[in-house]
Amino acid sequence: MSSDHPTLACKRVIWVVYLLQCSDGTLYTGITNNLQRRVDTHNAGKGAKYTRCRLPVVLLGYVEVSNKSKALSMEHRVKKLRRKAKLDFFNIVE
Questions:
Q1: What element of type H or E holds 69?
Q2: In what side-by-side order are the strands of the sheet with 15-21?
Q3: Are 90 and 19 in contact (CB under 8 A)?
Q4: What pTM was estimated for this model as a whole?
Q5: Cα–Cα distance between 94 and 92 in angstroms, integer?
Q6: Residues 6+ away with beta carbon under 8 Å from 92
Q7: Domain boundaries in the chain?
Q8: How far apart (Å, rounded) are the C-alpha atoms in residues 2 and 4?
């Protein structure tokens, strides 16, 4: 069997680290492999505990990474940053 066979082909999953702005102006950083679904989940009140009482949220930016491990590592680093540095990381001008 060829590696070109559709059932055997590896599907490349893109992970993203994303930045949301909550209704109170605070920022939230997370990761996902389906950005639109994740933002919709946050806005449905079924996302992270932090965002549930700060709805609606708005997507400010995201960065694509090659795998979940890198996404988790980047998310951890970004969460440690101050607000201005987070916005700079995602190239957002306030």
A1: helix 68-79
A2: 27-32, 15-21, 58-65
A3: yes
A4: 0.86
A5: 6
A6: 19, 60, 61
A7: 15-89
A8: 5
Statement: 15-89 belongs to CATH 3.40.1440.10: yes
Q: Which pair of tokens denotes residue 23?
A: 């209704």
With H, G, I as helix, E, B as strand and everything else as coil, classify residue 21: strand
- The structure tokens listed for 48 are 């992270």
- The token pair that represents 47 in the structure block: 């996302």
Contacts of 49-54 with CB under 8 Å at 24 or more apart are: 50/22, 51/20, 51/22, 54/22, 54/23, 54/24, 54/26, 54/28
Task: Kindly report which listed range (8-12, 30-34, 35-39, 49-53) carries the lowest average pLDDT score.
Answer: 8-12
Tokens of 12: 């490349």
* Model pLDDT, residue 11: 66
- At residue 77, what is the residue type? R
